[in-house]
């Protein structure tokens, strides 16, 4: 069986303010990934302190939390073979000025923390982050008729 994974993506407040939600979703859809959950959520300090726990000691931690609480974010789960690495590739590296051309961050942003998108960076992180942002009944399983064109017959 092919390695079908799920990953968590957040569209951050800068992209919401700049009316780029549709453009971000389009990048993942165009790749052929399957959307299995989506909602708006206003994140609180507790959730964000967990989510960005690895950055707690950084001088920008407080500003990052404030930035993430400015507007609701769009939380999504995308599914597909190897989707965790695929989505990170499409998103690009953390600093948009260093990200490869063609990535979301390089093409549409120029700054941190306002680099548009969060995406899980490993299998373990994806599992924890999906649970952090979604209840089981908010996540959908369905057949997408185009899967075999995108992923081959193995899916
Ligand atoms: N960030 C920041 N300043 C920095 C590094 C990171 O404001 O010097 C923010 C930025 O929004 C980044 C988030 O903190 O996306 C999480 O950082 P991480 O290193 O996990 O990068 P990511 O996984 O988002 O690429
Ligand atoms: Mg990260």
TrEMBL record:
<dbReference type="InterPro" id="IPR001564">
    <property type="entry name" value="Nucleoside_diP_kinase"/>
</dbReference>
<feature type="binding site">
    <location>
        <position position="94"/>
    </location>
    <ligand>
        <name>ATP</name>
    </ligand>
</feature>
<dbReference type="GO" id="GO:0005737">
    <property type="term" value="C:cytoplasm"/>
</dbReference>
<feature type="binding site">
    <location>
        <position position="115"/>
    </location>
    <ligand>
        <name>ATP</name>
    </ligand>
</feature>
<keyword id="KW-0067">ATP-binding</keyword>
<feature type="domain" description="Nucleoside diphosphate kinase-like">
    <location>
        <begin position="4"/>
        <end position="141"/>
    </location>
</feature>
<dbReference type="GO" id="GO:0046872">
    <property type="term" value="F:metal ion binding"/>
</dbReference>
<comment type="function">
    <text>Major role in the synthesis of nucleoside triphosphates other than ATP. The ATP gamma phosphate is transferred to the NDP beta phosphate via a ping-pong mechanism, using a phosphorylated active-site intermediate.</text>
</comment>
<comment type="subunit">
    <text>Homotetramer.</text>
</comment>
<keyword id="KW-0460">Magnesium</keyword>
<dbReference type="GO" id="GO:0006228">
    <property type="term" value="P:UTP biosynthetic process"/>
</dbReference>
<keyword id="KW-0597">Phosphoprotein</keyword>
<dbReference type="InterPro" id="IPR034907">
    <property type="entry name" value="NDK-like_dom"/>
</dbReference>
<keyword id="KW-0546">Nucleotide metabolism</keyword>
<keyword id="KW-0808">Transferase</keyword>
<feature type="binding site">
    <location>
        <position position="12"/>
    </location>
    <ligand>
        <name>ATP</name>
    </ligand>
</feature>
<keyword id="KW-0418">Kinase</keyword>
<dbReference type="GO" id="GO:0006241">
    <property type="term" value="P:CTP biosynthetic process"/>
</dbReference>
<feature type="binding site">
    <location>
        <position position="60"/>
    </location>
    <ligand>
        <name>ATP</name>
    </ligand>
</feature>
<keyword id="KW-0479">Metal-binding</keyword>
<dbReference type="GO" id="GO:0004550">
    <property type="term" value="F:nucleoside diphosphate kinase activity"/>
</dbReference>
<protein>
    <recommendedName>
        <fullName>Nucleoside diphosphate kinase</fullName>
        <ecNumber>2.7.4.6</ecNumber>
    </recommendedName>
</protein>
<keyword id="KW-0547">Nucleotide-binding</keyword>
<feature type="binding site">
    <location>
        <position position="88"/>
    </location>
    <ligand>
        <name>ATP</name>
    </ligand>
</feature>
<feature type="active site" description="Pros-phosphohistidine intermediate">
    <location>
        <position position="118"/>
    </location>
</feature>
<dbReference type="InterPro" id="IPR036850">
    <property type="entry name" value="NDK-like_dom_sf"/>
</dbReference>
<dbReference type="GO" id="GO:0005524">
    <property type="term" value="F:ATP binding"/>
</dbReference>
<dbReference type="InterPro" id="IPR023005">
    <property type="entry name" value="Nucleoside_diP_kinase_AS"/>
</dbReference>
<comment type="similarity">
    <text>Belongs to the NDK family.</text>
</comment>
<comment type="function">
    <text>(Microbial infection) Catalyzes the phosphorylation of dZDP to dZTP, when the bacterium is infected by a phage that produces the substrate for the synthesis of dZTP (2- amino-2'-deoxyadenosine 5'-triphosphate), which is then used by the phage as a DNA polymerase substrate.</text>
</comment>
<dbReference type="Pfam" id="PF00334">
    <property type="entry name" value="NDK"/>
</dbReference>
<feature type="binding site">
    <location>
        <position position="105"/>
    </location>
    <ligand>
        <name>ATP</name>
    </ligand>
</feature>
<keyword id="KW-0963">Cytoplasm</keyword>
<dbReference type="GO" id="GO:0006183">
    <property type="term" value="P:GTP biosynthetic process"/>
</dbReference>
């Amino acid at each position: 069986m092919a390695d079908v994974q799920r990953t968590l993506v957040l569209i951050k407040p800068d992209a919401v303010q700049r009316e780029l939600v549709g453009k971000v979703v389009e990048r993942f859809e165009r790749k052929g990934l399957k959307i299995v959950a989506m909602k708006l959520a206003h994140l609180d300090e507790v959730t964000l302190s967990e989510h960005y726990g690895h950055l707690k000691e950084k001088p920008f931690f407080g500003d990052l939390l404030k930035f993430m609480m400015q507007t609701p974010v769009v939380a999504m789960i995308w599914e597909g073979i190897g989707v965790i690495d695929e989505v990170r590739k499409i998103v690009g590296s953390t600093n948009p000025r260093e990200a490869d051309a063609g990535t979301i961050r390089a093409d549409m942003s120029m700054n941190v923390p306002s680099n548009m998108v969060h995406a899980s960076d490993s299998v373990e992180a994806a599992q924890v982050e999906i649970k952090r942002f979604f209840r089981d009944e908010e996540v959908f399983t369905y057949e997408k008729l185009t899967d075999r064109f995108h992923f081959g017959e193995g899916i």
